[in-house]
Amino acid sequence: MPRRNKHFESDPTTSRFLYEFQSARWLYNEREQQACRYMEWDANALVDTACTILQAKECTTMEKMMEGSYNRAFLLAFDNGKDAVVRIPCPVAGPVGPITASEVATMQFTREVLEIPVPQVYGWNADPKNPVGSPYIIMENAHGISVDQRGPIEGAHAQPLFDDLMTIEKAFEKVRFSQLGSLYCTEDVSAELQTRPLFADDMDLSTEALRNAANKYRIGPLVDRQWYRGERATMVSVDRGPWPDFVSYCSAGINLELAWLEHPASKSQPFLRTAMQSPRLHRSVLNMCARVIPLVLPPEEYMAPTLWHPDFSSENVLISATDKAHVQAVIDWQHAMIAPYALQAGFPLVMTYDGDISEFTPGKLGLPEPPEDLNRRSKEEQAEVLERHRRAKRQKGYELYIKVYNPRRLAAISPPKTSALNILPYYISRSWSDGVGPITDILLRFHERWDSVVTVPGTPCPLDELTKGEIQEYRDVAEQSKRFSGALDALTDKLGSLGDGKVSIAGYEQAKKVCEKLRETWDEKRDGGPFPYQDGGFSFFLS
């Protein structure tokens, strides 16, 4: 039997290491940002649990691996030569119990059924009142490095990365579920939900893995944190799923925000993006959204409920450090959901180029050559330019890969309305915090090219019923939102911030000085709202 580990005493240094976010600072709202990431838990109880699972007598070291927006990860090494990663969710992640249960179920399903390289779960507990004092996951230490850490990947070394990503994405496509929501083990959902089938009625369950999964897993309520922010988490009458289709999902989100308008907490909600907008306009926009969405859906064949990775970015795709770039592991499945295929299967972030080659156009073949004066530039600038072109070429290469090897997917994600519908549920869920401008922008774009986006030709657009004054009001809030977004992005870039005023500890003092100067040049009318980088200012995580 493992003996009790007493590595962690109750002293300020240890408490900060375990409970506090230490990897960065915030230029404003710092106290609140730290508070929503503060999580007390019993490290000795967790180590004892891990020792039992890993059949070790003692944990020899515990290192903090990562502090993300929603989690803290630690690497534990044991006296028997084994190691494991422990993930502790932060309160800002949402309802930490269901989130942990869903993440574990998703990791197990993708590993067992889809055969995607996902870390093995050694042990977990989703009950916040367990002996550790927090939900946790103890899992395999995935080996490999992120795609960006690898550096240039070209030629024969890049081919395995393309092949492996395509294999992973096609594995997602093969499984059609019965509903939209989040994945859980069967025993972790209500008795009523346990009676519902996991897969679509026409799903071929010819493999043993699929047949086992049909009993082991179920679809339950959505664990998207946007649906649980602040007092929303206490609203008991909210429909958080699962849902039979996309329209039902969007309708539930709209109803949540309409109910929020009547909640006393909405009247004094802090950290809003812009000045509090008219409840009348808010209701008008949400109700119009509810009328438009059913009329612009993609073809039914592209709307099957499909599981996908929630953040297919470079940091979450680990590849071999040398030689051919095979995918070693796909990590961080928190907040994964089952949603319509066309809205899930977008271009993977790990292959997306987001640099500043002005001639680069996603979706079109061809790429500009490096500048003619490249050889006359400094070595540092040459390296930077060439790296941008390498990344842009990588996106072009994978776009072509999809076109050749998965034309159905290309057909599903290509229509412009698909990307708009994909982001619309998010805009709905944050419409009081961020304003309705992003929604009115989408509605107006649909209105302008209605004949090309409407599902059934000849169906009139509901926006035709609005007066010129109402259309102008929609345009005004959309333009204000764009001005604020542009100004906020520029401010964030100048400060080297990762959003919400988050900067490196080393760069904090300098960024603070620059922030004060930028505050002097901010124009509230021109920039679409009040200066955000000040205490009480807009925050994605706090609003």
C-alpha end-to-end distance: 47 Å
**What is the molecular shape?**
globular
What does the oligomeric state look like here?
single chain
> What is the C-alpha radius of gyration, as a whole number of Å?
24 Å
**Average pLDDT number:** 91
Strand order of the largest sheet: 2-3-4-6-5
DSSP summary, beta strand count: 14
Class derived from helix and strand content: alpha+beta
- Our estimate of the beta-strand percent is 5-15%
Q: What percent of residues adopt helix (DSSP H or I)?
A: 40-55%
> Uncertain runs with pLDDT below 50, 5 residues or more?
none
Question: Biggest sheet: strands, sense, closure?
Answer: 5 strands, antiparallel
Count of runs of 4 or more consecutive helical residues: 19
Structural summary, described in words:
This protein is α+β, with helices and mostly antiparallel strands and 543 residues long. The chain has helices at residues 12-19, 30-35, 43-54, 96-112, 147-150, 159-173, 191-194, 208-216, 246-262, 279-292, 341-344, 379-405, 407-413, 416-429, 431-434, 437-448, 450-453, 468-495, 508-521; strands at 25-26, 59-67, 71-78, 83-89, 121-125, 136-139, 145-146, 182-185, 217-220, 305-307, 317-319, 327-330, 338-340, 502-503. The protein has a five-stranded antiparallel sheet. Strands 7-11-12 form a three-stranded antiparallel sheet. A hairpin with a 3-residue loop joins strand 2 and strand 3. Helix 9 runs antiparallel to helix 10 and helix 14 (416-429) runs antiparallel to helix 16 (437-448). The radius of gyration is 24 Å and the shape is globular.
